[in-house]
# Entry
Amino acid sequence: MAIQCFFRKYQLNFTFKAGTSRGVLENKHTYFIILSDSDGKTGIGEAGPLKGLSLDDRGDFEDRLADVCQMLSTAPLPQQASQVADFINTHIAPDLPAIRFGTEVALLDYSHGGNRLIVPNSWSEKGQPIAINGLVWMGDKKFMLDQINSKPKQGFTCIKMKIGAIDFKTELALLATIRQQFSSKEITLRVDANGAFHPLQALEKLRQLAQYDIHSIEQPIRPGQIESMAALCKQSPVPIALDEELIGVRDIKDKGKLLDAIDPAFIILKPTLLGGLAASKNWIQLAKERNIGWWITSALESNIGLNAIAQFASAQQVTMPQGLGTGQLYYNNIPSPLEVNQGLLNYNPEKNWDLSAIL
# Structure
């Protein structure tokens, strides 16, 4: 049976100005990879590189994606889900992580019948919810304080606050506000610096953060400073999680060497940035072998990508809160069964996917 592959470009529009240490986001372009046959069965994946961060944030992205779609329209495709990872490794260059993720998900979706089932899991198939953190975006003090005050009311028991873009004393004061109301047993606090700290100032800032019972800090300094990061992991009173540090590390031996050199408390897995689900699973196995904790985070995907990542997370039998609360960011997200209630991501089987905007 002949299978066609094509892509659709789509602009996701934020419901607010989303502040990060790399700037303010109002919209994001993403691409849907669609496999379709004459019977109407479709497999859909999402390739959404992050501007200024993804390896495939490049001027020829659409050309490379078109080449991949052409290949998928002509090459013999894997017949079973277990063959997909090898197919990706053989046919798609490692410097295209977002395209590898989108293609992997489209192939897995198609192989499971084209019903948005990506991997067998308890979340979408059995209704077992996934605990997620409530994300506090950067902005002025009032904007961040409003977000902080709303999260416990929305049922979140884990709050993640992005730091590093405004005055550090103001950020400490915001964290103090949370701790004045909730103990660490009531609210788990995570912070994400996105590499904003200078290596010579980082340890002192980590010591100041520690007074607020911080669960972990993601990427306190920029990636690529291996010795400085390793020293921080040894000395920091706040457990350190690697995030951007993992991007671009492709060979499994190099992944192990990185973890051995830095020895972080946690690693953060973003399949869009790391090259897909199979690539993320490699990191998980290496982390387990070294007693390094981990969790999975979406990277501003639409509900198409978020659905795939959530299914993958559920299949790994996660227990701690994951970073999967991004589905509510956009006012024109793809309508889906995904819902957030009381700090939990749920898959509501009574709701249908509405793919009219992309098919």
Remarks:
- The radius of gyration is 20 Å.
- DSSP finds eleven helices and 13 strands in the chain.
- The first strand starts at residue 3 and ends at 20.
- Residues 258 and 307 are 29 Å apart (CA to CA).
